[in-house]
Structure formats: C-alpha cells, structure tokens
Design goal:
Strand order of the largest sheet of chain A: 1-2
Distance between the termini of chain B: 18 Å
Order of helices and strands of chain A: HHHEHHEHHHHHHHHHHH
CATH class of the domain at 103-260 in chain A: Mainly Alpha
Distance between the termini of chain A: 24 Å
CATH architecture of the domain at 103-260 in chain A: Orthogonal Bundle
Largest sheet of chain B: none
Number of strands of chain A: 2
Largest sheet of chain A: 2 strands, antiparallel
Order of helices and strands of chain B: HHH
Number of helices of chain A: 16
Number of domains of chain B: 1
Helix content of chain A: 55-70%
Strand content of chain A: under 5%
Chains: A mainly alpha, B mainly alpha, C mainly alpha
Strand content of chain B: under 5%
Radius of gyration of chain A: 25 Å
Oligomer: heterotrimer
Largest interface: A-C, 108 and 115 residues
Shape of chain B: elongated
Amino acid sequence: MSYSVTEPSARQKWIAGILVALYAVITILPLVWIIATGFKTPSDSIAYPPKVVFQPTLEGYVNLFTTRTRQTPEYMAEHPPQTWAERIVAKYDMTIVGPSRFGARFLNSVIIGFGSTFLSVFLGTLAAYAFSRFKVPLKDDLMFFILSTRMMPPIAVAIPIFLMYRTLGLSDTHLGMILLYTAVNLSLSVWLLKGFIDEIPVEYEEAALIDGYTRFQAFRKVVLPQAATGIASTAIFCLIFAWNEYAFAVLLTSGEAQTAPPFIPTIIGVGGQDWPAVAAGATLFLLPVMVFTILLRKHLLRGITFGAVRK
Amino acid sequence: MMTFLTGLRTFRRGPWEMLASILIALGVVMMMQPWVLAFYTWSFLVTLVGTILFMVVGKFPS
Amino acid sequence: MTNPALGRLAKATPPGLAHRLRGLSDRTIAWIFVAPTIFLLLAINIFPLIWTIRLSFTNFRVNRPNEAVKWVGLQNYSRILNDADIWATMTNTAHFLFWTLFFQILIGFALAWLINRKFKGNDLWTTIIVLPMMLSPAVVGNFWTFLYQPQIGLFNYAVAFVTGADPASFSMIADVRLAPWALIIVDTWMWTPFVMLICLAGLRSIPESIYEAAECDRASPWRQFWTLTIPMVLPFLMLAVLFRGIENFKMFDLVVQLTGGGPGDTTLLTSINLKREAFEKWRTGYASAYAVILFVTIYGLASIYVKALNRVKQR
C-alpha cells in the first residue's frame, strides 16, 4: 500500500476503534436490556441490584399473549395444568382464560404496515418515474409540495382527518389507516425512488423504444428490473415508518384497527406495569426492524436524507 | 454586502431567498426565546411573512 | 381527416415507431403516473390543512356538535400568541431542541470523525450504533420509563455505580429539574446515529488531495481540522441540524410515553400541549389556530431545509 497523508497511524486506529466500540456497547445496552427483561420473572425484573444473571423463563411471553384469572387453591388442585404455558401461570394460582389482544394488535400492525407500504411504493414508483423522465409542469414545486407533506406535524393534520374520517366512516378501520400512512409515506417513496431511477441511464429505455416497445412496456421491462434494489429498500423504509408510527395511531384508532405501538405501553399486570410482558411485546415488535436495519445498512443514509446524500 | 443589495434591487433569487430565510429563522428564535413575551406575540407574523416571501421569490430568476 | 393519408404515413414509418405512436403519448403517461399521488396527497394532506385553516377562525368544538359555530376572526390567534402558558411550552421545546441538537452534533460528529479513521470492523460497529434510530420511539420511550425507575432502573443503577450516589435518591421522570434531561438523554441516544451518518457522509466527500496540499503547506493537523474539515462538512451539518430541528420541534411520541408532559408542565412540549387542547379539551377551533401556527413555522423551516438539501446534492 502506498503511503498517504490521510491514512491514520495504527495507534490512532486502535484508539478510535476502542472509543467507537465503547459507545456502541453503551448504546446497545438498553436494547439488550429489553430483550433480557422479556425472559425474566416479574420479581427478577424489578430486583435490586438489577439482575444480569437470571433463570430465563417464558412467563413474560405467556402473559403477553394470554389473559389469566386467579383461582382458589381447591380449583387448582382439581384442575391440574395441562400445557407448559398453563404450568407457568399455575405457580401464581392462575389459569389461562383466553388470548390477549396483543396478537390482534400485532396483526393490525402487519396488515396496515404491508398494505400502506405496497400502495405507497406502487404509486411512488409511477410518480417518481414520471418526475425523472418526463417534462412535468411545475416539477420543482410539485416535488417540494410532496416533501412538505412529510414535514407536517401529525397532530396538526389529525384534527381535520379525525373529523373527515368520522364523516366517511373510516375512523378506526384498516383502510383508513392504510390510506393515511400511504399519504405520509408517499413523500419518502417519491423522493427516494426518483433518486434511484435518475441513476438508471436513459439510453436503456431509448434502445427499448427503438426496438418497438411502448413507453409503458419500456417502463415495465427495462426500468422496473433495474430499479429493483431501490424499490426494495424504499419499501423497507416505508414499512419501518408505518410500523413505528404512533401519533396518528393513538389519535385515530382505539380498538378494531389499533396497531401495536399504542397498545404495548398499555399492557398492565397485577399492581403496575407487567414489565416482562411489556419487554416481550417490545422485543417481538422491535426485532424485525433491527433485522431490516442490518439488511438496509448500505442504503440507510439515502433513506434518512430523502435520497439527497448518496455516500 | 454590495452585491447582496444590488441583488435585492434587481430581484435576483439568491439574496431574496437569503432574506426570507433570515426572517424565518428570526421568527423561530422569537417564538422560542424565554425572555420577552412581546417577541413571542409577534413571532408568528415574522415567520409567516418570511415563509410567504420564500414562496414568492422562488419564482425570481437566479 | 383523410384515411388514405394516414395509411400511407403508417406504411412509411417503421413498425416499431408505428407501434409507439399507437401507445399513449409521454405527456399523457406522465399525468397518469403523477395524478394518483397528487390526488391522495390533496385528499389526505391539503384538504385537511385547508379545513384546519377554516376552523381556526371559528369557535367550533367537536364535542358540542349542536352548538352554533361562530366566526371569531383572529381571536384564536391573538389568544394563543398572548398566552404565557403556551409561550412556556415553546420555551420548553426550545430547551429540548437546543440541548438535543448540541449533544447530538457533538457526539455524532465525534463518532463520525473516529469512524472515519477507518479502523478494522468499523462497519460492524456503525451498524450497531445505528440501531436505536430505526426503532419505534413510543415503544422504546415506554421502556425507558422502566430504565429510569429509582432503585430498580438500569439507568439509575448505572449512574449510582459511576457517581456513588444512592440509586433510589433520584427519579429522572418524577423530578421537576431532571425530567427535561430525561427526554434529552433518550432523544440523544436515539438520534445521535442520524447526525453521525450524515457527518460521516460529509467527511467521506472531502477529496484527499486537499489534505495532501495542506500537508505540503505544512499546516498543522489542528489548523487543517478547522480550515478544511469543518467548512467542508458544514453543509452536511446544516442538513442534520435542520432535519433534527424540524423533527424535534414536533416531537410527540417519545415524550408522551416518557413523561406525558409532567411533572407539572415541565416537559410539556408544544405538540403535546396541542394534543391536549385538541383531543382532551376538544377546543377544536382554538387548537386549529395553534396547529396553523406550528405548521407555518415548520413549513418555513422546511423551505430552508430543501435549499440546504439541494446544496448538498450538488456536491
């Protein structure tokens, strides 16, 4: 390797590496703690000093997914627990009486997340292609308009949307939330995808047009495959946003279409919050995003700057 | 400074956008400063003028 | 229209082109492609916005639908802009904004600078550091209240471990003096990686040749840092500051879960106050005027943001 003035010395690299690693360990600690707490018993979770070594249990997960009721010791003696989950709750003289609402809320998150992601990426790809390739009148103004919708504070638009949805019968429905998240995500998907499509050489399409493709065929058979990675990472960004969204969800949904973020903090145990159950819910909810983040790491910068910074 | 003033007089986009940005920033600072209530009262007007100005001067030649 | 002429024209053009002519014109396609997006944004963003502006001049209340709606002119605006309590939520927001930006830029830039030393495994560490930024602020914020518990909370335990104080002696979210800092700590923890990533991009965009030239001029590393590195990264920093500024100005989910505005009104940020006016006190007209004020401010900042964005793009 040739000598370069900007190449740091080995010692500098070591110091930098140790400092960054130290920060990384500290920053990841709360996340590790969430995952660990999910496998603790309620009493272990509030022990002092905080327990690092503990007997792992699935109690938090059982509590998360079930509703339970306390029984008399006589009843417990007559009805011995059948499954492993029942055995766990039997320690507290409890029996499982049914599923909790967590499963339904999680499913709502999945439906609304994927529904809105599909719609916003679909519409976003079309719009981004048009903005990238054609002379659209007032292009810059439209692009800014699209971006500005992202900046709006959710609470400010929530008032009329609340009224509008109540009139249209869309409040607390999956469709209402999907449309809303699609609208919020469109700005991101149009801006990101325009950047990705801009990078595809126009010559490919021109060649296809000369070969007798129509504009539409050229778009479908030439541009879409070329933009596939871009579309995929845009989709993940949209999904993460819809997955994490809280303000609209807490204001516009209460039951039927409520997603997981407003629900998880409301998980209450006997006498205060049931932290292992909350942590179990949080773990299940956060893990997919962590995995996606690792998959996305090459495009992360683009996603957070609306495609402006490409590295 | 001179070019800035000439730019304003000849309706160039750059200096006018700068002026609008300064107004917006001033409005935001006025809104959030903890010292004088009167500044807070008039902050919205300043921000509004800056924002509208920014939209208008976007149409000026650069 | 004479058909024979068209027929001759069709025969004269190569089959590919003829096929293309039968397809839609580019202009039509452009409109078909853009229209759904614009339509949806008009329906779900612009229409509600206009409605908010209209409501902001009335005394409408959602919970009293039968009451006659009165046109009150600018009264809502003048009441909000003369209200010392709302001004206090603005200064709370300013405190939060200032310190989160301060710490995030300081730590974010330092981290980016260190990672740019190109040590082995920096990709792995970067990925780990970035994780908090992508997670749901509401869910994570809720869990932080657990970490902040006196005695049993991990945060209190860690502080006690380092400083030797009693972990049960302080409560980050129940103490009037500490609560604003509880928010700042969590926000800094979540969003430092964002600033770091942007700074890293800025650092990596600086061509090496500049440093080589500086080295020839015998400029000290300290001087190089202030006269080369900082000015080159500045547009990127601007971008990060504006974006985080806008986001934290409308901060809602994290704070609702962490402190909910309390204790007292010490962490009542402006978005949370707006939510109380609109969805708890149901003063819809008044809250609409409040929303318009916030919106105009954010729109103004967003205009500057897009300008900064374009400047970075040209690099």
